[in-house]
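Q: A reviewer asked whether we had any structural model of the full assembly, not just the individual parts. We don't, so I'm hoping you can provide one. Inputs are below.
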Amino acid sequence: MKSNSTARIAFFFLAPALIAIGVFFFIPVVAAFVLSFTDFDIYSLGNWKYARLVGIKNYIDLVNDPLFWKALKNTLYFLFVGGPLSIAMSLATALLLQSKVVRFKGIFRTAYFAPVVTTLVAVAVVWRFVYHPRFGLLNYALSFAGIDPIDWLGDPHWAMPAIILLAVWKNFGYNMIIFIAGLQNIPQELYEAADIDGAGKWQQFTAITIPMLAPTTLFITIITMIGYIQLFAEPYVMTQGGPQDATLSIVLMMYEQGFRWWNMGYSAAVAFILFAIILVASLIQTWLSRRSRAS
Amino acid sequence: MKKLWTILLYAILVILAAITLTPLVWMVSASLMPTGGANTFPPTFIPKEVTFEHYLSLFTRLNLARYLFNSAFLAVAVTLISLVVNSMAGYAFAKFRFSGRNSIFKLLLSSMVIPAQVTMLPLFLMLNKMGVINSYVGVIIPGMASVYGIFLVRQFAQSIPDSLIEAARIDGATDFRIYWTLILPLCKPVLITLAIITFMGTWNDFLWPLIVMTDDSMYTLPVAIANLSLEHVQDVELMMAGSVITIAPVLILFAAVQKYYISGIMAGGVKGE
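A: Here is a predicted structure for the entire assembly that you could use as a starting point for your response.
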């Protein structure tokens, strides 16, 4: 009797959240899966009955769509170059700020963290001018190193590196904070023991810091990957996917197909491939870390 | 040697801080320059003459007050609603024993790998049928509950002693009363953290408001700024003023309460392992 009423009360507290997440998250996920097997388009928008099941046609079309491969390639470029760069930057700054000789840690931490809380769209607008070929700050700074002006956002080779630089600037402070928390959790005695054994700083870093940080690094790698693979606002604001589709991302393609051209069936297939990539990558990372911990 | 290393360390930290803040400083200073003033070589950081004309024209000519209101209203509404919904669920997961508790919680946690973009197409169709596209409700609905928020509250509420709740129950308090007058005040630190994270997240959100808000008068600041920046590519100073107004509220809020914000990230990061 008692456990029965406990369950009822618990359900009362859970209901709003579970209903909201169930109806507006889980049902749409399932619906998106179904949608990706239909030819839902602008005509179906007025009357859903016009949509027909077309099997895996959308996925076949995607595989044959050079634009999709371009978007996938761009997104993976952003992910595999920008992600590690951003994480390395976070770890480096976290280590610098952990140094015992540094004072005013709070001030530095706040400065590095400031870009994290800014509005992505607004800073993308600002960086569009930082990258201005004639008047931009970046080319001006590079001119001191004798580097000729680069048309960052107009040159297909430089547009993605430019977006990566903005993303690293915007995000490294976030993971830095998590790394600092991870570093503070490493027992100080380990370093003291290593000092007594005569281990050098570099040895301590590779033998203590890196292994002890492994769970933190795994967590950071997964959240960074999930965040970076959703690249959207930067190309939307700065390049609209150009030049020559050099910055077209998966989510930008999904948005354009779904909400500009209303090819919602096709767009849902793009969204599911995004999901599949995230899922597979998370599983691989978790599996790799389990294996390394077991050995 | 040690001294040299210290100097080098500070040099790196200071240069890095300067590089990090430069774009933001330049944004503010360019927003105060007269039209065309920012298009100079070399770039300048100190305006030759200071003008507020761009801020003025944003509010008079470009309807910025409306976008500001939309953003503020949505951020406050989503924050308040989700705070209640998430804290109730987090409390239930922490303090009630019922069958299926752990499996439901695990299901919720694992759903965090599903990117929100997957839900956006069907959600748009659903909300379209409900007639709430281009309305505040359309933006609020997917923000009502969040797994991350439930998780944060649960972690915190677990540390509340059961004896406290039992004592209140013996005194005859109803379960809702216990939640409202005992649990919520005890959870205040985590609720403040969650409120700040939710407020900033909603304020900065772009893709979903871009999809839902079809009418110019319903745009949030990021949607309006993105739109304006595509129309006014040449008006550097005007766009910088718009960016300042978009960024300033969250940056000031962060400066005021950064302790809570950063502790929230640390809690999520450390316990997320």
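A: Points you may want to mention in the reply: Chain B has two domains: 1-51, 63-271. The domain at 63-271 of chain B is CATH 1.10.3720.10 (MetI-like fold).
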